[in-house]
Amino acid sequence: MTASPELGTPRLGSADLLRSTFRRHAAGVAVITARGAAGPVGFTATSLTSVSADPPLLSFGIGTGASSWPAIAETEHVGVHILGEHQGELAGTFARSGADRFGAPTAWREGPEGVPVLDDVLAWLVCRIVGRVPAGDHRIVLAEVVLGDPSGTGRPLLYHQGRFNGLRD
Question: Which PANTHER family match (predicted)?
Fold first, then answer.
């Protein structure tokens, strides 16, 4: 029988344990956008997940205390943008509370269904929200892909250990 490595001292489930664990999990970086009553809104998300191919569905999480939540709670469509490794500053802007997310230097345009579409991303989608599922202090948003463009070039931006990074070979 092979000896197993020391597991350390387990900790009880908590927000701190969850955050500490997921800092070790590298995740792709996306920006979710929507048209809000007072103008465009958006936030950085690392919780983007492909859910179904038929119909084409994805999901992402958003905190109910987030500044973008009121718009996401009411809108019918969202934009989903996959960021490239050259867009760490953009990811930081959309992650920072109180930032002017759509001011210079952010390059964007109004896209289909009035959704803000960011320029120079690896891929973007416009999706129709089909569900908002309560999950603690968050909502899991389910959205069906309506259209998009996956033709951007470059390598993906990753989030790991509290920082935005590129892939290493």
Answer: FLAVIN REDUCTASE, FMN REDUCTASE (NADH) RUTF
